[in-house]
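Sync notes, pocket subgroup
Present: LS, DG
LS reminded everyone that the earlier model was apo-only. Rerun requested with zinc ion included. Inputs:
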Amino acid sequence: MSILIQQATILTMKDTDAPFTGDIRVEGDRITQIAEHILPQPQDEIIDGRNKVAMPGLINAHQHTPMSLLRGFSDDLKLMDWLERKMLPAEARMNPEDIYWGAKLSIAEMIRSGTTAFADMYIHMNEIAEAVKQTGMRASLTRGMVFLEDDGGRRLQEAIDLVERWSGAAEGRITTMYGPHSPYTCPVEPLREVIALAVTEDIPLHIHLAETKEEVMKIRERYGMTPTEYLEEAGMFEQAHVLLAHGVHLNRRDIGRLKGMRGGVAHNPVSNLKLGCGIAPITEMLAQGINVGIGTDGAGSATTVDMFEEIKAATWLQKLDYGDPTRLPAKDVLSMATRGSASLLGLQNEVGILEVGHKADLILIDLAKPHLQPVHEVESLLAYSVNGADVDTTIVNGQILMRGRKLLTIDEDELYREVKVRAKRIVEGI
Ligand SMILES: CSC[C@H]1O[C@@H](n2cnc3c(O)ncnc32)[C@H](O)[C@@H]1O
Ligand SMILES: [Zn+2]
């Protein structure tokens, strides 16, 4: 199968390239040509790129996909009340099939809004992996582990099984990580055990870090240090590739501890705003050479998983926080949502830029809309004016998952029927 996108405005996201008008050929799962004009071949599926921007798909670096079932169920609460009084009881009622449909709902929303890969941390990961496999998405999957009660090693065994069964599955679209949930849910012994496993197997780690002031206080009371120091003392930044979600409350010394680490920080600005957590020191981390990507967190807190909303929130928060509109300019925030997130998933040599030889994960954005005209600076439009509904076409691994806003791998009527019944049952009485 080959695809030829003709006469699009191409934004490769490579440092050396300005946007230009041209063609892109996709053969199998890879980009094989990018040029001003490419001769069509008889087998090509032609996509008209006029009035459209072709860019790398956005990469959501921190998700809890099945939480789409809990969207709008318990708003306007503090994080710990929200999590302990609402989310955890609801999650205890989710069966594996609910997880599958919740993940599929999130995946549908992500494909529709231009996301081509995501990092997920949740439970019942086999069902999420099946949803990824069937829908054609790319994902890095993590079995989240809370070590507050003894479970006879069940969670860790499930995490090990996930890694063994799904790493490299679905034509290589699925990768895996180990996921100790957070400093406040992981005492040092099991934390060290998971870090050792990750290092031995060279599997990345995915963990929440320093999301709230309460977390910082709790870890100070328990261990006499900051959450970042706690992870450092446990050996997390020595060898492993680590995806740190949030990193809101980091002091200057904490940022210094992350310098030179493998992996980096997934910024989740909408979730941080909605839960009143604070503003992460993104521009300071970038200035220190720390890799920063963007995620949504689950739809239970972010309310949508539209990465264009996150891009806007990320740049505007930095400008507001420092009283400086030059902070986190359009190009930089777009780079975070593509290349930065790709590095967090360990996929920087495969996705995140449009490049011959890279995997064909790309999106087309329709500019023939009043809010996207005229076109002065493409990057400015993408960062500040585009929203998820402007995405026309989504391609992952060379497969078209949405064309002309029609999903091609998901039956949306069936999806909404399943979700409605399941979501109602899960939250009843909570
Ligand atoms: C054990 S699977 C993952 C676990 O994380 C919970 N979760 C969702 N959002 C957040 C957040 O912002 N901070 C901490 N934990 C979060 C989710 O409900 C699952 O239980
Ligand atoms: Zn999270």
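DG: The domain at 58-344 is CATH 3.20.20.140 (TIM Barrel).
LS: The pocket of zinc ion (ligand 2) is lined by residues 62, 64, 208, 245, 297 (CB under 6 Å).
Action: DG to write up.
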